[in-house]
Amino acid sequence: MPALTVDDFDFPLPPELIAQHPAPERNGSRLLHVCGQRLFDRQFIDLPSQLRAGDLLVFNDTRVIKARFFGQKDTGGQVEVLLERIVDDTHAIAQIRASKSPKPGTRLRLADAFEVTVTGRAGANNEFFTIKAVDRNNLWELAEAHGKLPLPPYIEHPAEGADEARYQTVYARAPGAVAAPTAGLHFDQAMLEQLKAQGINTAFLTLHVGAGTYQPVRVEKIAEHKMHSERFDIPPATADAIAATRAAGGRVIAVGTTSLRSLESAGNADGTVNAGAAETNIFITPGYRFNVVDRLITNFHLPKSTLLMLVSAFAGYDNIRAAYAHAVTERYRFFSYGDAMLLEKSDAI
Question: Is the CB of residue 34 less than 8 Å from the CB of residue 344?
């Protein structure tokens, strides 16, 4: 494709289509099935009928932590801190909102309960801050005790009791994410059991989704954009399951873009993956060659976002533009609490 700009991934979205609350039931969302130029309006509960025995679904089992804090600078100014990643018990990378960016050495009192010191900047574009807990407090415990659930910026209500359960997958295991792997929010335990009964296999990996997932693309030409880095871990059992699926002629289906990015980052040309932990800043745009993932389950993504670029690479740029236009016309619900898509890889159609 010719050199693409961020405007090539814009689309008109009526604000009322941005879902503010989840569907009453986890599997109660709609499902837009994109098969090249063909579009099928389905319900998410129909997903098992679109799979076959021997397929492998790969889920991200990260758990969202209470990563948002409100507080004050030592000068009295108000701040909002959103953890990007807890590095260890006393160090973290964070977004900080304040009237003036805090300088290294600035002390922040958060939730009127504990203090951290700003130690520097981080991120590909210095968009984050590094912070250190004072008196060697355990940041994991402090987040659980004093933090707020970090709902996305386009959800307008503060986190409520219902969000504590619904902005978390039923299989969440490893704490560390500050944003949910939202494609997985549609699965309930009954559907997981149904898939197993149909001979559809499941496997898990862990990628702790950071707040950087909401960072806008700040350059015109997308080739100049630098992705933030995220850490993922693929267990040997998952790598083995992918190899066995490949050998048996089954399909590898990523549940969510985080699963896809992990698998492709660890992937080999023969469709297998390397087990273990690693960092990835992979930026998938149209023209990318997918080695591992055959199908993708995902939600609808923000205009001009890196995730919209990823799904355009996977299902075809023109196909995704048509699918999103159809979704707007048919009043699908968008973003984290919205409806889902099942995408076929464009070169496999």
Answer: yes
